[in-house]
Design goal:
The chain has helices spanning about 15-25, 55, 80-85, 125-130, and strands at about 5-10, 30, 35-40, 45-50, 70-75, 90, 95-100, 105-110, 115-120. It is α+β, with helices and mostly antiparallel strands. It folds into 2 domains: about 1-60, Signal recognition particle alu RNA binding heterodimer, srp9/1 (2-Layer Sandwich); about 70-130, Roll (2,3-Dihydroxybiphenyl 1,2-Dioxygenase, domain 1). Strands 5, 6, 7, 8 and 9 form a 5-stranded mixed beta sheet that branches. It has a 4-stranded mixed beta sheet with strand order 1-4-3-2, covered by helices on one side.
């Protein structure tokens, strides 16, 4: 089994796709006006419209209601990225902070309120774990 993607359901696909294209510097691949993907080497962030929810099961997903998952992106230099994101992100949860497990992390919210973590390994064990 391979983990492939995370999908966010939103009421405004274009707005959320635009946000993730800007903060990740990655163009989206659009399948329809209701579905797009931000593809990286290690996984995909899929963004789907509320109009797609009934295809799975009516009422099975609700936009802008996540308070339990964190979308995490490994980045080369979280401190310099933080400076660049100040014009793109309106809600930072924290500034770059070194976590006890050895990653320097920057948390912020996307336009739907989903928590996003951009992180850079800084401790030797964390660097080794994420060596590319």
């Amino acid at each position: 089994m391979d983990f492939v993607s995370v999908r966010i359901i939103t009421g405004d696909v274009a707005r959320l796709v635009d946000f993730y294209e800007r903060v990740t510097k990655t163009p989206a691949a659009w399948a329809t006006e209701d579905f797009a993907e931000i593809r990286t080497a290690s996984g995909t962030l899929a963004i789907g419209s509320t109009r797609t929810v009934p295809l799975f099961a009516p009422g099975s997903a609700e936009p802008a209601a996540n308070r339990s998952a964190i979308l995490e992106f490994l980045v080369d230099d979280v401190d310099s990225l933080y400076e660049n994101l100040k014009g793109e992100v309106t809600e930072f949860v924290n500034k770059p902070t070194t976590m006890p497990w050895g990653n320097r992390a920057l948390l912020f919210r996307d336009p739907d309120g989903n928590l996003v973590n951009f992180f850079t390994p800084v401790a030797p064990a964390a660097i080794e774990k994420f060596r590319r």
